[in-house]
Design goal:
The chain is mainly beta. Helices cover about 10% and strands about 45% of the residues.
């Protein structure tokens, strides 16, 4: 999930372009397998870096909080985040663009997925039908 944005840094402030994300699978140590769906996000050059915004649909695998059966859950992840050019002075919590102008989307996407994961997922087959 690494994208080279060198071309954008040759452009003036406010320049924007679209970035195509292709289908792929990614394995996170804490979320597990994530199926990233083909999508397009917007990139805009700011005075500090690159602003990214757009929606990336993902599929994740969870276990039902009642019967523990696997659930395939589709989520639309709405990204809205500024990636800062790493000048050596930015704080550790920021998403950064490295000195080779690479934007790494994996950690950002991970945090957004975690925010969107339901706390107690319930499978639709059995558990949603049984009124506890
Ligand atoms: Zn269940």
């Amino acid at each position: 999930m690494i994208y080279n944005l060198s071309e954008m840094f040759k452009q003036s402030l406010g320049f924007s372009k679209q970035l195509e994300i292709n289908n792929f699978k990614y394995n996170y140590y804490d979320i597990g397998n994530v199926k990233v769906q083909k999508s397009v996000i917007d990139l805009t050059k700011t005075d500090k870096g690159i602003w990214i915004s757009g929606t990336i649909p993902v599929g994740i695998e969870l276990n039902c909080s009642r019967c523990l059966e696997q659930i395939d859950l589709d989520l639309d992840i709405n990204l809205n985040e500024e990636f800062l050019v790493d000048d050596g002075f930015i704080n550790e919590d920021s998403f950064t663009i490295d000195k080779d102008n690479h934007l790494r989307l994996d950690e950002c996407l991970r945090e957004y997925i975690i925010i969107n994961i339901p706390l107690k997922p319930i499978c639709s087959k059995k558990c949603k039908l049984m009124n506890y």
